Amino acid sequence: MTSSQESKKQELPPTAWAMLGLLSFPGERTGYELKKWADSSLRFFYWSPAISQIYAELRRLEDLGYASSARSGPEEARAKRRYAITDAGREALAGWAADTAEAGPPVLKHGLMLRIWLGHLAEPERLRTMVVEHVERTRGELAAVREAMEHAADVPEWAFPALALRWSERQHLAELDLAEALLTDLAELDAGGPAAGPAVRQAGGDSPTPG
Known about the structure:
This protein has helices at residues 3-10, 14-23, 31-39, 51-63, 87-98, 111-117, 124-152, 159-190, 197-201; strands spanning 29-30, 67-71, 81-85. It is mainly alpha-helical. Strands 1-3-2 form a 3-stranded antiparallel β-sheet.
């Protein structure tokens, strides 16, 4: 590996490793197939890539020698480029996956909670509606997770992805519990009950939290 390639390897973002991870399972896949697989697995716990991002990462992985590609032959009506992991890519991926120092903390960006945080600018009924809509979306996502779990259940090579999907199922169930509790909190706040707290009921002060 050249010094330029080594530098690029050190700069690889986790999303590139995730894409290489999709290639680490048996078989060769097109960019479209990788998109479908990411949408039925990775998106439940990490990342939902755009097709343009998938191809950008594939080009980067090919430049590093971590992935290879080949166009299909004349037997297919439409030529397709299929990608596969290389031995160098599998070795690098195994090293990255074993390096727990790179895992980092989970990152939460909860759009609904940002709106709840700004609830003093919204009508209470609108806030409740947003939470109810969130519950319905989460139930739909939970159903999709369970469908993916069924698909992976009897495939030995997908044992570890199945564990990640099981975690995703629990996470969505927890999200539903949190949303139901939030509806209770909003009702109490609207009624001036315990959820209101002194910071909400009292005017003045620079901040509702310490610091």
